[in-house]
C-alpha cells in the first residue's frame, strides 16, 4: 500500500516540496552571470544536469524568472561554479533574494576572477568551473530550462586525479535535498559496467 499524491488535486507549492524531497540528491549549479549594466550575479540552482556530450551542453532550471535568467538572456553567457562542502555557508547565502543592483560576490565576501572565454567571472574558491554560451531557453510550465553550450571547463590542478579527470573525493561536491536539507559528499563505491547482459 502507498500514499498517493496527485498533481491535479494538490497545490503547486506543496507539489514543489514533494518533488524536491523525492528527486534527491540534486547537484547544484552555482551560476555566475553579469547584467547588461555590468553587475555580477551569483546564485545556486539545484535542477542541474548535462543535456548533451557532443556537442557539450549543460543545463539548469530556473523556477520563475530570476536575475540569472534575465542576465543570460541579455548577454548570452554564464558560468557554472562547482558547489563544494568548503563553500557551504556562502552558497546558501547567495540563495537570498538580493536586489539586482547588488553583486552577491560583494554581499557574501567572495573573490572572483576572470573566466577564460566568457564575460561573467568565476568564483576563485570553487575548484571547477564550466563556462558556457546560451544555447536555448525552454519554457516549461512555471520554469525555464537554460541550456548552455560549453566553451571551457577549468579545474585547479590539485583537484585532478592521476587519470587527469576531476577527483570526486577532492572536489567534495554538495547536493540539495528537500526542505532545508543539504547533502554532504557521499561515500563512493566502484563497480564496472557490464559489456553485455
UniProtKB/TrEMBL annotation:
Question: Which family, according to the similarity comment?
Answer: Belongs to the flavoredoxin family.
Q: Per its UniProt record, what Pfam families does this chain match?
A: Flavin_Reduct
What does the UniProt keyword field contain?
Flavoprotein, FMN
Signal sequence coordinates: none
What species was this sequence derived from? Rhodococcoides corynebacterioides
Q: Which residues form the Flavin reductase like domain?
A: 21-169
Mind telling me what this protein is named?
Flavin reductase (DIM6/NTAB) family NADH-FMN oxidoreductase RutF
According to the UniProt entry, the coiled-coil residues are: none
Please name the InterPro entries in this protein's record. Flavin_Rdtase-like_dom, Split_barrel_FMN-bd
Q: Which cofactor does it need?
A: FMN
Amino acid at each position: 500500500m502507498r500514499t498517493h499524491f496527485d498533481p491535479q488535486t494538490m497545490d503547486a507549492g506543496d507539489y514543489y516540496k514533494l518533488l524536491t524531497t523525492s528527486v534527491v540528491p540534486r547537484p547544484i549549479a552555482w551560476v555566475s552571470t553579469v547584467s547588461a549594466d555590468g553587475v555580477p550575479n551569483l546564485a545556486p540552482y539545484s535542477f542541474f544536469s548535462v543535456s548533451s556530450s557532443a556537442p557539450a551542453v549543460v543545463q539548469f532550471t530556473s523556477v520563475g524568472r530570476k536575475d540569472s535568467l534575465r542576465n543570460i538572456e541579455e548577454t548570452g553567457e554564464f558560468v557554472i561554479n562547482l558547489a563544494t562542502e568548503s563553500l557551504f555557508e556562502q552558497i546558501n547565502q547567495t540563495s537570498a533574494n538580493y536586489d539586482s543592483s547588488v553583486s552577491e560576490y560583494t554581499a557574501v565576501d567572495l573573490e572572483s576572477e576572470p573566466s577564460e572565454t566568457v564575460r561573467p567571472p568565476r568564483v576563485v574558491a570553487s575548484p571547477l568551473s564550466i563556462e558556457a554560451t546560451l544555447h536555448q531557453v525552454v519554457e516549461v510550465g512555471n520554469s525555464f530550462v537554460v541550456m548552455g553550450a560549453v566553451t571551457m571547463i577549468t579545474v585547479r590542478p590539485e583537484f585532478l586525479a592521476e587519470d587527469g579527470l576531476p577527483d570526486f573525493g577532492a572536489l567534495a561536491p554538495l547536493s540539495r535535498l528537500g526542505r532545508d536539507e543539504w547533502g554532504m559528499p557521499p561515500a563512493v563505491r566502484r563497480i564496472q559496467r557490464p559489456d553485455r547482459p
